[in-house]
Design goal:
It is built from 10 helices and 12 strands. Bound molecules: glycine.
Length: about 325
């Protein structure tokens, strides 16, 4: 039923404003992890991030939310065993999977992380359930896995034979002293980066309403002690999104990202800087304060993205209306 009189006028003004409201250009950027990507895995990793960016972008083009777009992009990477997340998760010191994930909505500043998951096929969807259906911002272990069951999330065997082979090799090298376990992570990443093949996946998106979202997912650091939780489920460290600032997600050694609250720092830097400027500045600061071992992708309020890292590689893809699909396996030595 149409309103009448003054309320009708107000209705017409609102409708007009709604119709003339400019839609934002949807943008997505995803990464498949910082670390040391062997040459023979470059093309598979790049194909994986391109597919994830494309899937997320399709959601944005349908007019759906940034939150759904980052979730879909991360699911795509969790289901691709080339990446260290979901199905491809690396193994801890005992040879078990303990996966983490996080998601954050820049419109509401709601967000949540899940940690220490053994069997959930898509940890990112469980993080979204925690964000939307509970009062908590971080849940770990069996309880949250049960919550996944209640919501019908599929389970999977995340312990892939290739990861078991990598774990056995890493343990042998650890035992014969050719790697120094966790003393310290940075040296390990730098010298023996192959054990950190594709650390963590992440996605940032801006939808047609200009809302921002961030998501990430990881098997964590190889040979981590059982019970260790990284940065990925921690808001501010592994990811952050705020419509008023921007969105960012980190990859690399989680302990650095937590100590330096890296993703929130990148978002704060976007008050006065572009996404690229903020990511580059934060990585420079990280290198000075903590050394090598970190990568960042960022997205500012204008839909511009940034990428910076001090690890040997970072694999990423972005998709925007203006620039189309851009993907890179960036290497530094
Ligand atoms: N960045 C992933 C982790 O450290 O767990």
């Amino acid at each position: 039923m149409q309103p009448s009189g003054a309320s009708r006028l107000l209705y017409l003004v609102k409708m007009r404003r709604h119709r003339t409201q400019k839609l934002a250009n949807p943008t997505i950027i995803v990464h498949g992890g910082a670390g040391d990507w062997p040459q023979n895995k470059h093309s598979i990793g790049l194909a994986g991030v391109r597919k994830a960016a494309t899937r997320g972008f399709q959601i944005l083009q349908q007019g759906r939310s940034a939150i759904r777009a980052v979730e879909v992009a991360v699911i795509e990477m969790e289901d691709n065993p080339i990446f260290n997340a979901g199905t491809g998760s690396t193994l801890n010191f005992e040879g078990k999977v303990e996966a983490d994930a996080g998601i954050m909505d820049g419109r509401t500043l709601r967000g949540a992380g899940v940690a220490l998951l053994h069997h959930v096929k898509n940890p990112i969807s469980l993080a979204r359930i925690v964000m939307e259906k509970t009062d908590h911002a971080l849940l770990a272990g069996k309880t949250v896995e049960r919550l996944g069951e209640v919501y019908g999330l599929p389970k999977a065997n995340l312990r892939l034979p290739e990861r078991v082979r990598q774990w056995k090799r890493a343990k042998r090298e650890l035992e014969n002293g050719s790697i120094k376990y966790f003393s310290r992570n940075l040296k390990l990443v730098h010298d023996k980066g192959r054990f950190f093949l594709g650390d963590t996946v992440g996605a940032l998106a801006m939808d047609q309403k200009g809302n921002l979202a961030a998501a990430d997912s990881t098997g964590g650091v190889s040979l981590k002690l059982p019970g260790r939780i990284g940065d990925s489920p921690i808001l501010g460290a592994g990811l952050y999104a705020d419509n008023k600032l921007g969105a960012a997600t980190a990859t690399g050694v989680g302990e650095i990202a937590m100590r330096l609250v890296v993703s929130k720092s990148v978002c704060d830097a976007m008050r006065s800087s572009t996404a690229q400027g903020a990511a580059s500045k934060t990585v420079r600061d990280v290198t000075t304060l903590a050394g090598r071992g970190l990568g960042i992708v960022s997205l500012d309020r204008k839909g511009r993205y940034g990428v910076a890292h001090n690890t040997p590689h970072l694999c990423w893809a972005a998709l925007t209306k203006d620039k189309g699909l851009v993907s890179k396996m960036v290497g530094i030595r």
